[in-house]
Each structure stands twice: as C-alpha cells, then as structure tokens.
Amino acid sequence: MTTEPSESIECPLCCGIGKITRAEILDRLGVKDFARVAQLSAEEAIRLLLAKHKQDEQNVWARFESELTKRTTLIAERHKDELRSLTGRAKELEAAATVALQHRSHEIESANRRVEDSLRVAGELRERNRLLESEMSKVARIGKREEMDFADEVRTWAGIHISDKLGKNGDYLLAFRDPSGAALEPRLLIDNKDKAAIG
To answer: Model confidence over 3-19: pLDDT tens digits?
Structure first.
C-alpha cells in the first residue's frame, strides 16, 4: 500500500533546520514531480472519463427518448385503429338501436290502433246493447199492455171466465163459466204475447 508523499520534506542541505517544498527541490534539481504529474494526469483522466460518461449517458437518454417516442407513436397508431374499429362498431350498434326503436314504435302504434279499434267496437257494442235493452223494455211494456187488453177483451165474451193475472207459468187461466159466473172445468193456461197469437 503506497502513501502519497508529503508536500513538505526536510531539506537535505540544511538537515531539517529549514523547510522547503518537495516541488521546489525537484525544480532546483531539474526533475519533474512525477507524483504531481501523475495526480494531474489522473484528474484529467477522471475528468475525461466523466465527460465521456456524461456524453454516453446523454446518448443513452437520447436513444431512450427516441425509442420511447417511436413506441408511443406505434401504440397511438394501434389504439387509433382500435378506436376507429370501436367507433365503427358503436355506429353499427346505434343504427341497430335506432331500427329497434323504430320497430318498437311501430309495434306500439299498431297496439294503440288495436286498442282504439277494440274500444270503438266495445263502445258500438255498448250502444247496440243499450238500444236492444231499450227495445226489449218497449217489447215488455207492449206485451204487458197486450196482456191487459186481452184480459179486458175476454171479459166481454159471453160464457167465458178468465182468472186474474198469474205470477208465473203463463198469464191467465181461461175456462167456460156457469150461469152464476163460476169457472168450470177444464181450465186452459193462456200465455198471451199479443192479441193475434195465444199459446
């Protein structure tokens, strides 16, 4: 293990009474300070090495940035293609959704028309039913009046007895009568709808 020589050494001429630097002695003897030269050379070598290292580092970073830019561009292009593909697919899906909405709208309109038609038919049927009920009511009133007119007319017939209006199973019981006016057997059950037809 070598030790760096001291900067100050004893002067061999004065046997250590005075002091003189190593560089001064070597200069007086006409000899270069090889240690100093070596030190300066080492410092220069280190400086050159650091400069080269710095240059290499800059070159590495420049290559890295170039490669990064290139790969970023490639990725961007690839994603741009994927984005174009996804955009196309999205447009297809939007078109399909529009067609589905139009189809659904047509179905809803058709269903609405069917409901409206059904409601109109139901209204017409209700009106016809009301008219039929009105007609049936008129017929029932006419039948009742005919029954009453028939009973009044039969009472004018000589020798014929007619009962009061029956609650069910026909309208009247019709029979011959004796001189006192009592009904004789057999009796006939009469169901009268009008004076022209007797059942």
So the answer is: 555 566 555 555 555 66
